[in-house]
Specification:
The protein has 395 residues and is α/β, with parallel strands linked by helices. Helices cover 41% and strands 15% of the residues. Strands 2-8-7-6-5-3-4 form a seven-stranded mixed beta sheet, sandwiched between helices. A three-stranded antiparallel beta sheet has the order 9-10-14. The protein has a two-stranded parallel ribbon with strand order 1-11. It is globular. The chain binds pyridoxal-5'-phosphate. Pyridoxal-5'-phosphate binds next to α4.
């Protein structure tokens, strides 16, 4: 197969043609500043309002509760830092999970330096938050629970309804980082008692650099970016109108074809998981088998290095991702894989493949064969594997 097979949709997605088409006029024709008073600018203002309505409908809320940001990272920072600031007289304790994205974890670590206390709740071996630990962690000074909707590495979907109920019963605000889940699975902020929700355009075939934070009506959150009067003074700065229009178009498409897309992705995902587990020995699937994003597969292959696997798959035209984050020259295993209890050496041999509705069964077959071949090749060069074979007399 000569073409590239893109299986890294959790990192980012292709912008759909219809999305680009919807954005174009807002670069070339309707380029007015939404804050200007003349008629020419009303098209831009209307486009922003219309986008909020589209997004609000997808979450079962009101357009006025949607605030555009520059992406998921900003939305997470805003939700957590602004809650900390606004509710500090009530308390300085925040609860989150050990498997959050760094946009949440590093924000919490920053707040710890500022005198806040953060409890990081454990997850079980499938990556599901331990609800009993969450309940026990709640204190009179707890002001926020921030738990991601679905994990970006292992795809596990959290028991968001239960977490929302626990937060509500205890009068604590509930924020969820839904960057990986939004547009991929149904979300109703009312039914799930979500007070704040972060999302990002580039994870659902929209443009990069645009996201939003949903803030439930009545929350006294401070503004995050200070300046002009945009976004009702809560997030200043001239709106990214083409980005906003593109994001809303991507949401419209994602909502329209969701059930069809989910069944297609689940079929491909399950085919990938079953075949890889069948043909590659000493392999495990990471993340919950059923409560997982429709497009996520994450494996650990014993006796190999994830980074080498990625490079060799790249040579075969396959784009995937490893669980390891390469920070300043040292390879640290993923905090998510360690939190689900994997030993370092197994966490190091991990591969995340996240597909899209555009992938085909033929591509999955090709990927399974290449993964099997590359793993075998890497193992044949591994002294650890050689030792294991000798000790266990494996053929
Ligand atoms: N949260 C999660 C769960 C993510 O997966 C990501 C991106 O990978 C982010 C936050 C950050 O989003 P953005 O890239 O839009 O800043």
């Amino acid at each position: 197969m000569d073409k590239m097979i893109y299986l890294d949709n959790a990192a980012t997605t292709k912008v759909k043609g219809e999305v680009v088409e919807a954005m174009m006029p807002y670069f070339t024709e309707h380029y007015g500043n939404p804050s200007s008073v003349y008629q020419f600018a009303t098209k831009s203002k209307e486009a922003v309002d219309n986008a909020k309505d589209i997004i609000a409908k997808s979450l079962n809320t009101r357009g006025a509760d949607i605030y555009f940001t520059a992406g998921g990272t900003e939305s997470d920072n805003w939700a957590i830092k602004a809650t900390a600031e606004a509710y500090k007289n009530k308390g300085k304790h925040i609860i989150t999970s050990k498997i959050e994205h760094h946009a949440v974890l590093h924000t919490c670590e920053h707040l710890e330096k500022e005198g806040y206390e953060v409890t990081y709740i454990d997850v079980d071996e499938n990556g599901i938050l331990k609800l009993d630990e969450l309940k026990k962690a709640i204190r009179t000074d707890t002001i926020l629970i921030s738990v991601m909707f679905a994990n970006n590495e292992i795809g596990t979907i959290q028991p968001i309804k239960e977490i929302g109920e626990i937060a509500k019963e205890n009068n604590i605000l509930f924020h969820t980082d839904a960057v990986q889940a939004y547009g991929h699975i149904e979300i109703d902020v009312e039914e799930l008692n979500i007070d704040m929700l972060s999302a990002s355009g580039h994870k659902l075939n929209g443009p990069k650099g645009i996201g939003f934070l949903y803030i439930r009506k009545g929350l006294k959150l401070r503004s995050f970016i200070h300046g002009g009067a945009q976004e009702r003074r809560r997030r200043a700065g001239t709106e990214n109108v083409p980005g906003i229009v593109g994001f809303a178009k991507a949401v419209e498409i994602a909502m329209d074809n969701m059930s069809e897309r989910i069944s297609k992705e689940i079929k491909l995902r399950d085919m990938l998981i079953e075949k890889v587990l069948k043909v590659v020995p000493y392999t495990r699937l990471n993340g919950d088998r059923t409560n997982r994003l429709p497009n996520n597969a994450n494996f650990s292959f014993q006796f190999i290095e994830g980074e080498s696997l990625l490079i060799m798959l790249d040579m075969k035209g396959i784009c995937g991702s490893s669980g390891s984050a390469c920070t300043s020259g040292s390879l640290d295993p993923s905090h998510v894989l360690l939190a689900i209890g994997l030993p370092h050496e197994i966490a190091h041999g991990s591969l995340r493949l996240t597909l899209s509705e555009e992938n085909t069964e033929e591509e999955i077959e090709y990927v399974v064969n290449e993964v099997a071949a590359v793993v075998e090749r890497l193992r044949s060069m591994s002294p650890l594997y050689e030792d294991f074979v000798r000790k266990n007399k494996v053929n």
